[in-house]
Amino acid sequence: MRLLRKNARLPNKDLAARVGVAPSTALERVRRLREAGVLQGFHAEVAPAAIGIGLQAMVAVRLARHSRPQVEAFHAHLLALPEVLSLYHVAGADDFLVHVGVRDSDHLRDFAMAALTSREEVAHIETHLIFAFKRSTDLPVYLDGDEP
Predict the structure, then answer these.
(1) Which is it for strands 84-89 and 96-102: parallel, antiparallel or unpaired?
(2) Predicted structure pTM score
(3) How far apart, in Å, do the first and last CA atoms of the chain sit?
(4) Is 143 within a domain?
(5) What tens digit of pLDDT does each residue of 27-82 get?
(6) Domains identified in the chain, total number
(7) Count of CB atoms within 10 A of residue 94's CB?
(8) 81 within a domain of the structure (yes/no)
(9) Which UniProt keywords apply (predicted)?
(10) DSSP annotation of 5
(11) Which domain holds residue 19?
């Protein structure tokens, strides 16, 4: 799993050699991990600036009310927005952390006004500009019997 997380395009032959198993065994293990839902997909890392994203921000959103229908509707609303790169439904003072990618500060302002503050369920937003962003390819794996 760790090797595939670092490079999802790793050829099966190389994966097998690095893990120390036969290629057929590696192929079967990856197939079982996909079927079990452990591996949920394979993705390409895209350079944001190369596709016109000049500014990224993390927007903390506090809802006015916390009914399940409102939370689920807001969640669905966020997922439908092309500017939303990822979102987190969190505990604490804020209800959602929304990672957005926009062209520039004008686009960010317009996005916040149109997509967030205009919604009646939104009580408050706080925007944090992101100066650098790097997703870790390391992932801790906690299986039965493993020490944390």
Answers:
(1) antiparallel
(2) 0.81
(3) 17
(4) no
(5) 999 999 999 998 898 888 889 999 999 999 999 999 998 899 999 999 999 999 99
(6) 2
(7) 18
(8) yes
(9) DNA-binding, Transcription, Transcription regulation
(10) H
(11) 2-35
